Amino acid sequence: MKFRLAIPLAVIGALALGWAVGRQLPPSTAGHRGFAPSPSRTLGTVEPPASGLSESLNEDLDHALGEPRPTHRSDAVMTIGLSVAPRDIPAALAVLAKRREAEAATVGALLVGRWAAVDPVRALAYVQALPRSALRDGYLRAALAEWTAADPTAAGTWAARLGDRRERKRCLALIVEEVADKDPQGGLALIASLGNIPARGQLQASLFRRWAGRDPGAAAAAAVGATGLPAAVYADIASAWASSNAPMALAWARNVPSIQDRNRALAGVVSVWSKSEPGAAAAFALGLPPGQLQNDLLGAAVSQWTSADYAGAMNWATNLPAWGIRIRMVQEVVDQWGQADPAAALPYALALQPSEQQRRIVADICTRLASTDPDAGIAWVQQLPAPLQRQFANPVLSQLLSQDPQLAGSLMVSLDQNVQNELVGNVVATWAARDSASARDWVEALPEGVSKYEALSGLAQAWAQSDPKAAAEYVMQAMPSTEAPREAALLGLIAHTWASTAPEAGANWALALPDSSLKTEVLTSLLASWTARSPQEAAEYAAALSPGSDRAPASAAVAEQWAYTDAQAAGNWAASLPSDTARAGAIRAVADTWSGSDPTHPVAAASWLASLGDDAQAQVALGSVIKRWGQVDAGSAKTWVQGSALPGALKMALLGQIPGP
Description:
It is built from 37 helices and no strands. The model is unreliable at 1-47 (pLDDT under 50). Helix 29 runs antiparallel to helix 30. The protein is mostly helical.
């Protein structure tokens, strides 16, 4: 029976290295354990492969893979890889290429390594021509390991010149790993010899990380004496050293010359130290000068401590002598504790000193509680007094809406009535955005009152985003006749949204309503919103309306809204309208808005109205402006009227509207 080989690819390099050691044996053993090829030999250019190689190699490999005992199977596979004649290696690899990767991996890596020991450039050319895969990566590692062991500088120079960025980065990383494990100082020299290549910092960080794992003291000494190292090096060394000797790592970190590198090293020490001795790590951080470094290290230590022993961490935090740091550390403990046991942590979180940070902590914990145990989250909110419900019901409701909106609805109707009135609109809007049908059913089941109106408001706003016409018609059907002002307000909200998507369709819908104050309110609300986005379009629409009861309020709504952003343009448009009630209302709206935007200096509005000459509608509006101006600053209003070029009779009439002698 064939056995499917399953050796992790990470082992392939070790197997290839085993062959490399084998070929160091005395010549008497070379026939079986290895070979010592002539330096002049180039594989692939010498005599042809032995006849029957394909059949014998496949037969031997099948036999090896069929070995039931892993050690025997491994030895048999190794023997095959070491027994192929040097001249036959390319042909043997061609045979292996036809087999499954798992079967070819170990033998292929050994063969590629042997090839690279004789002709690394040709061996790597073969590997690079393969499609990217785990097998190719194993071959690449084996070839580079051989070349690096023999001539790391040549291997590094070759890799640095590769055109493919991904391939270059991978090859350089493998070369540096190989050197770092045997001669880290030589690895630094190799990286330096490559010049200012893009991957320089990553290679240095990788080398120091591996070096620190074996000899952190030597790595630390080398790092302090080096320049231009990436920031991660100091934290990596400190972390590796602290795992075996935290006091020595701390002593080194405190003496790193650069402040930034020193802080990174200290952070690395504390991140590891706090796992085994959180109290000592926290005490060290507490002794640092106040500042960001102390905050960061205390946070790291307390986080680890709370994860392992929240009771001990809380006892430490509550007994700190300094008030400010005590408050912060208690908050930190409660915050971390809330991630592990939100139900237990919530009472402590509520008891913290009231602050924005405390509110954030409570909100985070109760959200987590609602996520893991919705019933417990609901029960917790229900037992809160109204002021706390107002603060903390929202996070729980938001979490429930994402899981089960019906649960959010159940919690909502159980809240204090005033809190319910405040929150229900946003809750229903969020619910309706996800499932308008179930949200609508829930709203319809509510008793009449403020809460239902606020719920309808949220439903209407969310529904209007997708279908404003349906939302408007639903509101008109759902609102009782006794609630006309509220109905108008809801339709106004829908109109505002409608104006941003299809304003003309919305205005046409409003025009089709029966004549009433409701129709006027909806139409003017929509036109005002439309004007805020596109005043020219809204003005053209209003001006094109047929004379009658609709054009006057429509024109006034456009003129008023436009005057907030460009009073002169709004005034010019209003003055261009046919002389009727619509024009009079538009001019009055521009004048009132223009002068009202700065009540103490309505000169611009008055001057514009005066410039319209013998225009009865403008003169009526001017009288209104002067009267309001005179109530604020009679002297300035009189001075302007007296100095104007208005007809004498009009001046007298205007002066008569200004209070005072």
